[in-house]
């Protein structure tokens, strides 16, 4: 079985991707420092795929420790690099943590990959690189803009690093997937998102409110230039997103495409915050306590993806509806409560 190193493989998107890799016949090897995940994610993965997946507790900024993993595992054929910090607000307060971890881990990883002649990389990028887009939907040709947070800037810098490496004549072949808004959880409810503290993302805030952990959801503004006045996003089911990584790995291993390619990964549909709330309510039958509040500073009014390039080159297509994604997020939230109740 082909070994794929998955940095950040115990995290939200990483754990779902590990499951899809196993199901597609690959041997994922997880590297994670558990700075934003729990070992229980490994148990969840094992329960879904029916066996343990190898995991190295390693910090990706530590080249020496990374080198030991490549030495031990020997025949790694490709890498998916999820490991990063992702809290936009925290990155404004502590930018050096973000530059060190997000940029430092990519540089260390690329150096070690080069030493071990591993030259296939899938990188986690983000629609945040498009800033406030001038036209919609955004294609991969839509200009990348000045980042509006240090977190966003790390994604932009990492894309530039990959661009410079590709231009240097390196043998590296990489694909940067620009995720739109990943939501939901595995249908088994054995893995999902584990937000630390008060969630800043919409869907974990919705599910925590619905289960009684939060009193009320505040919708950040209803005076935007959108059909109901609330922000528009492209919410993509995390399992569909995970599958995009498997097809990206396949493309790299088949030596198809340019030395560096960018793909939008979303659904292609724009959804307002109010529509997202309605989808949650209709999928779960749970009524949500919410109010309209002021705008949140820095919010992009509307963004959604054109996914034609990913559809054509990767054969990527989403299979889950927004309601299914909401239902899976809810089932995961309920299972978390049940597992805490058992402790
Ligand atoms: P997550 O925090 O759940 O997962 C990241 C994992 O990486 C965690 O398990 C964490 O412990 C690990 N990690 C962090 N720094 C590490 C390091 N130095 N060494 C080893 N492990 C480390 O986040 P996620 O939502 O799964 O995001 C995965 C990737 O996708 C990130 O690069 C993120 O920036 C990107 N992304 C996420 C979203 C989103 O909304 N979730 C959107 C666009 C892009
Ligand atoms: C979605 C919508 C909010 C919470 C963030 C990062 C971005 C990317 C994806 C990684 C917005 C509204 C939210 C709440 C609300 N991550 N909302 N009340 O802002 O699209 O992007 O995650 O790369 O970099 O910035 O996602 O889930 O925070 O918000 O009304 O309590 O929900 O205003 O319109 P966002 P989000």
Describe the 3D structure.
The protein is of the alpha/beta class. Helix content is 42%, strand content 17%. It is built from 11 helices and 13 strands. It has a 7-stranded parallel β-sheet, sandwiched between helices. Strands 7-10 form a two-stranded parallel ribbon. α6 links the parallel β5 and β6 (173-179). α3 (63-73) packs parallel to α5 (95-115). The mean pLDDT is 97. It binds nicotinamide-adenine-dinucleotide (NAD) and UDP-4-deoxy-4-formamido-beta-L-arabinopyranose (WQD). Residues 7-8, 10-14, 31-37, 59-61, 82-84, 86, 101, 105, 124, 126, 179, 182 line the site of nicotinamide-adenine-dinucleotide.
Radius of gyration: 19 Å
Provide the β-strand percentage band.
15-25%
SSE topology string? EHEHEHEHHEHEEHEEEHEEHEHH
The shape is globular
Low-confidence stretches: none
* Helical stretch tally: 11
Distance between the termini: 37 Å
The strand line-up of the biggest sheet is 3-2-1-4-5-6-11
Let me know the largest β-sheet: 7 strands, parallel
Kindly name the structural category: alpha/beta
Bound small molecules, deduplicated: nicotinamide-adenine-dinucleotide, UDP-4-deoxy-4-formamido-beta-L-arabinopyranose
